[in-house]
Amino acid sequence: MTETAFSNRYKSELDPEQLLARMRSVPIDRILPEDEIASKERELICSDVVCPSCGATGAQIVRASKGRKTAKAVRKSHFRFVSAAEEDAHHKFCEFSTEALGESKEPLIGFGKARSAETRFIRELVCKGIENGIFNQQSIRAMRQWFFDLKSTTRIHVTATSEAVDWMEALWRHPHYRRWPFRPVHAELPNFNWEQAAKNQFTEDNIDLLEWLFKRRKESSFPNAYGRAKVLSGKYYGQEVFDTSVLRPFYEKTIDLASFVAQNSEFPNKKHSAYYQSQGAPDFLLALCALLLFMSDWNMDDAVGLFAKLLKAPNSSDETLGNVMGLNPFHDYAAWETLTIASELAAQSVADFDYKAQLGTTKLRITEEYRLWQAHHG
Question: Distances in Å between the alpha carbon of 220 and those of 9, 38, 152, 165, 374?
């Protein structure tokens, strides 16, 4: 469901009601759900409006609908993009295509209903930026197209199963920093901990794999997204998808800018930069920082200068300028990166991916070693 789309005619991202209000030159409260859309209007919409992500054409408005018994809204009005063959016109890997959406959460950032202090803060900056000419909705549209084109330059096949993702998560949580190989004499202690001994021996047995994963994860610098990665694996296993690894340098710069400006502005609920590195930055802050970097040709200092200009700009007189539904350019980036590393890890793993079973086998092995040692030493 594409709730908003970009109008080339009005150079704005609009929802269906906003678009119809502009086309008819009437206040938005005059646009009612039961209104008919004239054939001439449908033709103009089809030729004018494009998808905010992949730029697909063939837009149609699907009006809101209500339940028969309760009269409550069961479907929001939205845009649908249809080809001449009456098929989905989105690019196969567009976030809004019928194939890509599936179980995916939509990659939208709604500034129209700024409920949190953080969202209100960013919305005000978006309004100020547009009203004061620092950027416009065409800039936002250009950034989205740039990101989409960048991702579409290369493809990869999804080879990591959900079990491989579980295996990666288990190894990442495993305490690999202690190396204490088991010796039967250790078990002579009266309160010997067999579970901990099995974990220590597991570390010793898999130290190369664990150290590789630690280094790989440290290099990648992305937040944990195991659950989402498993969803994507189940949906796309064996299929060809965009290679989002090309976004890595841009993601890292955007995270750095987000943490810097949050610490050095009045952004509410500040977090230490290490938090953003491990948990990710709020989507709305990430989207704004990506836009500023995009406009600055990815120069960090120039982007900081733009952010400072935003902060110093006069307040906007039109709060509706912030109603644009922002698209997170790094939607699912962390999950795809997780899948990439999980597939690399799986290729290097010689055993199965059942962490608990391997720990159990390790424990049985060391208890048998102790039994044999004890029998020999009387």
Answer: 41, 52, 21, 16, 47
